[in-house]
Design a protein that fits this description.
Two copies of one chain form a homodimer.
Chain A lengths: L6 H19 L6 H8 L3 H7 L3 H23 L5 H12 L4 H17 L3 H27 L9 H21 L6 H17 L3
Helix pairs in contact in A: 1-2, 1-4, 1-6, 2-3, 4-5, 4-6, 4-7, 5-7, 5-9, 6-7, 6-8, 7-8, 8-9
Chain lengths: ~200, ~200
């Protein structure tokens, strides 16, 4: 009788290996061979779980997005409004090693999606999911009177999306400048600004 | 007597061709062969001007940065402070076809620099140059009393850098959402916010 393999678990192992390779050496280095080696599987096993490199990349991106969303939902379980928005933004930023690798996967994916309409579509769908999430927190904050009555919520969503993207990028390119502390400081200044308009 | 070739001009032509290939098909497609074909030169001519693909990429990125800076200096020649900052930010954003390609080159370069310390160093140096430029406008604005006396200028520089990065990315990934008009709107809201604190 063949050994029963946990498919989801093995896919996850391969994606974890993919993340490590991308973080260490960039997307070009994340060949099927390098990923298989890092994961400790044969290339044959890999091709059983993924159709090609693009499939691995898309899956790695989706996993990054799902992980961030799950962390955000856990972190904000007992809070609402601006407090929850703050916790959520901190979960989305590269403040620790795990999230730093997540940001690297995301930025690699982003670079790769220039000139690739399929990958841009995947990224665009992730943005849609993020926007709904941020909008939920902003709606709560507005309902609780934490924002100005005339706060332009869709524009604030764009601000939050932009902030998370840009702090992640600066943390990757200039880790000495955009430290975790500095990221938190900029988030707090942003939240102060959108709250200040409420008075 | 051999024909005298304008080296700078020919390098520029090759980089223009590189930009068009990256914008159309992504960085992976920007092989020496594809760039040579697009430029209408032989691969031999290309290797005369550039040592390898990475050299072409670095040169394309530096040219993008230099072009943006030159446009900014021209656009702000007759203005100062927040007015100049606004004009400068608009020059840095992908509001027309030329600048859209510039943003695509920049985002491709960014993705490629994950896991490549050399490319990250180039990108980091560009950030330094940008920060000095933005800081100059903010210093003028502060000196003219257009910002709050306690405005945190280095943090505002980070905000501007972040804004330009993130609007460029969203314009590439979601051009239907992050239209040129929408980018201008978000810049104006940002400038209103930093000016509002002055009162």
């Amino acid at each position: 009788m063949p050994k029963i393999v946990d498919h989801a678990e093995r896919r996850r192992e391969v994606l974890d290996a993919t993340w490590r390779v991308i973080a260490r050496a960039g997307l070009d280095a994340a060949t099927t061979r390098a990923i298989a080696e890092e994961a400790g599987y044969s290339i044959g096993v890999l091709t059983h779980y993924f159709s090609d490199k693009q499939d691995i990349l898309v899956s790695a991106h989706r996993l990054a997005f799902a992980r961030a969303r799950d962390r955000i939902l856990v972190a904000t379980r007992d809070s609402a409004g601006v407090t929850a928005l703050r916790l959520a933004m901190l979960e989305a930023l590269p403040l620790d090693d795990e999230r730093f690798v997540e940001a690297q996967v995301d930025v690699s994916f982003l670079g790769q999606s220039v000139g690739n309409a399929y990958l841009r579509g995947i990224r665009s769908a992730s943005y849609e999911g993020s926007r709904r999430l941020w909008r939920g927190f902003l709606d709560q904050a507005a309902a609780a009177g934490e924002l100005a009555e005339d706060a332009d919520l869709p524009r604030l969503v764009d601000d939050v999306v932009g902030m998370v993207d840009s702090l992640s990028i600066q943390a990757i390119v200039d880790p000495g400048h955009m430290t975790p502390d500095h990221q938190v400081l900029l988030v707090d200044r942003f939240l102060e600004r959108i709250a200040r308009t409420a008075r």
